[in-house]
Design brief:
The structure holds 2 protein chains of 2 kinds. By secondary structure, chain A is mainly alpha-helical. Chain A has a domain of about 140 residues: Cytochrome c-like domain (Cytochrome Bc1 Complex, Chain D, domain 2, Orthogonal Bundle). Chain A is built from 8 helices and 2 strands; from the N terminus they run ααααααββαα. The radius of gyration of chain A is 30 Å and the shape is elongated. Chain B is an alpha/beta fold. In chain B, helix 4 packs parallel to helix 6. Classes of the chains: A mainly alpha, B alpha/beta.
Chain lengths: ~200, ~375
């Protein structure tokens, strides 16, 4: 009886060990998990987009179709030049260049959306920036800082933006570090690309 | 001793001045200069008067040209971009101010021309509000459609209120035509846009999703037909919301078939085109066609970054701290030669006149004042 009990236990353990070992081998034979993961993620994303067509729109592409956005500087030259050996800083890949361009432009495009929308600006009288400044014309960011007698102090671009938001737009002034103010400044600067800085000009 | 019946120099001066102004009421500037120069010359030669006196400069009553063109004036108001009263009262007050300005003109203008974009988003309330305010004008109203009036319901409400967007009439020897130059090729169906989305797209001056303005072949045919009854000598004044030439495509300061329309107008000896949409002082001349812009009551636009006509002398950059600066209305004074003086009555600034001699001399004579703060 005793022998029989131990033998049975041993046999069960042996079977279990073989089964575990066998199934591990089976798993190792599965196809590349990274590819499968991407496929699964893609199919989930496609499903979400089908369910949320409004939110799935490519807002950057759409805003660029609506409004002319000056492109950010082209940095592809960096890849053509000799990249010095032995330095980590300054050794860039194509991915770096693409990331800079895409992220910078996206920030500016967000600024364009706010600039062209009374609602996003928090305006209360239906007035948006583009109604006086199409394509950010007549904004002259390159001339700040400058003394504005009407404000009684030296104004930065953001002070002038806030003046416009409070007066013609009739909205609440934006915090200097708010996402809206940062994006607005980015768009206005971008549209005056190539203009020489000339602070103090009236 | 001299007789007691003595008038002081000042009294005589004021009497002569009043007399002269009375007689001047209906005469145009060029005939005045001619008449007064001759009169002054004669008077001085005979030792009767000094150059500072008005006495010899008596003038004739208004003359008419061989074609019967008379000198008269009409007022204009344009681009009020009204929202509903409770959303934005600033634009409403600006239109009310313009109506007061025009109603206080003495003598009253022959008619008042409204240059389009009465509403901001083409809504029933906006258009009705505008129509209600314009009813207070004492002089008869002639009105043109703008893209802001049109693209919500494709002109349905506007036409219900104001009638035909295209029309022509004769007045004191001039032939007048109003065109609808804001026709855009369908960009909305393909994108599945709702009427309000379409309106918002067109309402953005720098919105590149929309198409360019055109007059269109159908309307060009109508124009050709309408003008066929008139001889080349008839002075012609054409109204179009967009400039009937190509200035800056990205803001639709532009008419796509401008050349075709100009070709129809070309045979006339004297053509004046007056347009809204640009909210600024704008002067151009192509051949014998003289172009003038209109001021907005709501806000001034910046000048286009390229393509500015040589004859345009820009108005000073508007003061951002003054919501009325760069806005206003104005009047047009016609001459017997078929040309016009275009007066820009800017609020808070001196009025600026673009005289007929300025455009007819290609900018050599009577230059308007240069801006003290040009755009950059």
């Amino acid at each position: 009886m005793k022998i029989n009990k131990t033998t049975v236990l041993l046999i069960i353990m042996l079977i279990g060990a073989i089964w575990v070992f066998w199934s591990c081998e089976q798993e190792a034979e599965e196809p590349d998990s990274a590819t499968t993961g991407q496929e699964i993620a893609d199919s989930h994303m496609a499903q979400w987009k089908r369910k949320n067509p409004e939110r799935a729109k490519d807002w950057v592409a759409e805003e660029k179709e609506r409004h002319k956005i000056m492109p950010p500087a082209d940095n592809t030259d960096i890849l053509k030049g000799q990249q010095a050996d032995g330095h980590t800083y300054g050794r860039y890949t194509e991915l770096d260049i693409l990331t800079w361009a895409r992220e910078t432009e996206k920030f500016v495009v967000e600024g364009s959306r706010i600039f062209h929308s009374a609602d996003l600006l928090g305006g209360t009288v239906g007035v948006s920036c583009d109604m006086c400044h199409p394509d950010a014309a007549n904004t002259h960011p390159e001339t700040y800082p400058k003394f504005q007698a009407q404000m009684g102090r030296v104004a930065l671009l953001r002070d002038m933006i806030n003046w416009c938001i409070e007066n013609p737009v009739r909205g609440a002034r934006l915090d200097a570090d708010s996402p809206q103010m940062r994006a607005l400044e980015a768009y206005i600067w971008a549209q005056r690309k190539g203009k020489t800085l000339n602070y103090g000009k009236h | 001793m001299r007789k007691a019946k003595h008038k002081s120099v000042e009294t005589r001066h004021m009497e002569e001045r009043r007399e002269l102004y009375e007689s001047l009421k209906n005469i145009d500037r060029r005939s005045f200069l001619k008449v007064s120069a001759v009169a002054l010359g004669t008077a001085m030669a005979s030792g009767l008067a000094w150059p500072h006196s008005f006495q010899p400069a008596s003038v004739l009553s208004p003359s008419t040209s061989s074609q019967g063109a008379e000198s008269f004036r009409f007022a204009y108001i344009s681009d009020s971009h009204l929202y509903k009263k409770d959303l934005n009262d600033r634009f409403v007050r600006a239109l009310l101010r313009s109506v007061d300005d025009v109603n206080s003109m003495d003598p009253q203008p022959d008619f008042v021309f409204y240059g389009g974009d009465l509403a901001q988003l083409g809504q029933v309330e906006e258009l009705e509000l505008g129509a209600q305010i314009l009813k207070d004008l004492k002089a008869p109203l002639k009105i043109m459609v703008g893209e802001h009036d049109w693209y919500l319901d494709m002109g349905e409400k506007w036409q219900e209120l104001f009638g035909e967007p295209i029309q022509s009439w004769d007045h004191k020897g001039f032939h007048f035509v109003i065109l609808n130059s804001v026709i855009e090729k369908d960009f909305w169906t393909e994108r599945g846009m709702k009427p309000m989305e379409r309106m918002m797209t067109v309402a953005g001056l720098d919105n590149g999703m929309q198409s360019s303005f055109t007059v269109g072949s159908e309307q060009r045919e109508w124009l050709k037909n309408d003008l066929s009854k008139y001889s080349n000598d008839t002075p012609l004044i054409v109204f179009s919301h967009s400039p009937l030439y190509k200035l800056y495509k990205f803001w639709n300061f532009w008419t796509d078939d401008a050349e075709e329309v100009q070709a129809i107008l070309k045979r006339f000896k004297s053509v004046v085109v007056i347009h809204g949409h640009t909210h600024q002082l704008l002067t151009n001349r192509i051949g014998n066609i003289h172009f003038h812009g209109l001021l907005s009551t709501a806000w001034p636009w910046p000048y286009a970054p390229e393509g500015m006509p040589e004859l345009t002398i820009e108005m000073s950059r508007p003061d951002p701290f003054n919501p009325n600066d760069g806005c206003g209305n104005g009047e047009v004074i016609t001459h017997t030669d078929g040309l016009i003086d275009k007066v820009y009555s800017l609020w808070n600034r001196n009025p600026i006149t673009i005289s007929s001699t300025y455009t007819s001399s290609w900018g050599k004579r009577d230059r308007p004042p240069m801006p003290n703060r040009p755009s950059y």
